[in-house]
Amino acid sequence: MRILAAMSGGVDSAVAAARAVEAGHDVVGVHLALSRAGGTLRTGSRGCCTIEDAMDARRAADRLGIPFYVWDFSERFRDDVIDDFVAEYKAGRTPNPCMRCNERIKFAALLERAVELGFDAVCTGHYASLVETTDGLELHRASDAAKDQSYVLGVLTAEQLAHTYFPLGSTPSKALVRAEAAERGLSVAQKPDSHDICFIPDGDTRGWLAEKVGSETGDIVDASGAVVGVHDGAHAYTVGQRRGLRLGVPASDGKPRFVLEVRPVSNTVVVGPKEALAIAEIAGARFSWAGRAPSALEFSCDVQIRAHADPVPASASLTSGELVVRPETPFEGVAPGQTAVLYDGTRVIGQFTIDRTLSAVPAGV
């Protein structure tokens, strides 16, 4: 196959490209320039799109003896990921920019261009597995549960899966990937993993959002509407947050309070007891299937609401254009804007963006 290897400059994508070459594929490496600031430098292990990362990717490609290019996707990244991130926070939701990047950049914009140029598939260093069955291609969890990235790939459609290649899915551990990189003479063998939000390299999400959204003081209220504190900007708060509330009025029971809701229109943050974070139902109209769609309008599944959360057994149903999920045990601290990924064992069924939640605690309790 003709393979376009997306090379971030990290060890995973370098080893994935090496395995594609070793498997006999015709491989070309590409690094995506996503930052508008071309001279951006890496800070520790934060970020994945810096000038150093581009150079690391080039060195890996040279070591593998494959052609290498840098493609400027910064404008598309700004429009589809950064602007979306800001808009979601303005609306009081909690977005996942990594999901949007996979959905709209790596497996939409990049894949579209790859197919146009005659490539059969895009290769990445994600830890996930593709399984060919009589019912079609399936996306499954990686063999290394600690590194499994199937959650952030849940946005991929059947058509996109047909043009993807994940060489690391069956690797038992990240340590083995690093050892393999060292054996292959790849300079990124011990490079730290990137983490946090790549376009906020200093990790100060609150400060970054304040510059983009602005900071306007507002009320922090309890469930009855009574004012219990003041905030410096609702965008800085997320559902489930406990720290940094600086409440002026203590709870009557003396227990800590948590953010239950962010209301951007009124610039209000609602707080309450931990018990009120329990969610009995989540739902969303923006859903997709990773391969074949469920054969029934109601089905059982496991649901994961964060990249490293444990899956929760649940029932799901398609009702009036909405995907509704009810967990066997309530979720805790779920916010609109988060992504819920549905599984059948290790297989990814699909995903949806959470538009609304239903509390497990009766109103007034």
TrEMBL record:
Q: Which residues form the tRNA-specific 2-thiouridylase MnmA-like C-terminal domain?
A: 282-350
Question: What's the catalysed reaction?
Answer: S-sulfanyl-L-cysteinyl-[protein] + uridine(34) in tRNA + AH2 + ATP = 2-thiouridine(34) in tRNA + L-cysteinyl-[protein] + A + AMP + diphosphate + H(+)
Can you tell which superkingdom this protein's organism belongs to? Bacteria
**What segment(s) does the record annotate as region Interaction with tRNA?**
147-149
Limits of the tRNA-specific 2-thiouridylase MnmA-like central domain: 208-272
Q: Which parts of the sequence bind ATP?
A: 6-13, 32, 125
Q: Which keywords fit this entry according to its UniProt record?
A: ATP-binding, Cytoplasm, Disulfide bond, Nucleotide-binding, RNA-binding, Transferase, tRNA processing, tRNA-binding
> In which compartments does the protein localize?
Cytoplasm
Q: What is the E.C. number?
A: 2.8.1.13
| Disulfide bridge map | 101-198
A Pfam family found in this protein is tRNA_Me_trans
The answer to whether keyword Ubl conjugation applies is no
Q: Which positions are catalytic residues?
A: 101, 198
Please state what class of enzyme this protein is: transferase
- List the molecular function annotations (GO) for this entry: tRNA-uridine 2-sulfurtransferase activity
Q: Cross-referenced InterPro entries, in alphabetical order?
A: MnmA-like, MnmA-like_C, MnmA-like_central, MnmA-like_central_sf, Rossmann-like_a/b/a_fold
**Which residues of this protein are annotated with the site description Interaction with tRNA?**
126, 338
Query: According to its UniProt entry, what is the function of this protein?
Result: Catalyzes the 2-thiolation of uridine at the wobble position (U34) of tRNA, leading to the formation of s(2)U34.
Show the NCBIfam families listed in the entry: PRK00143.1, trmU
Family of this protein: Belongs to the MnmA/TRMU family.
According to UniProt, the name of this protein is tRNA-specific 2-thiouridylase MnmA
Q: Which gene encodes it?
A: mnmA
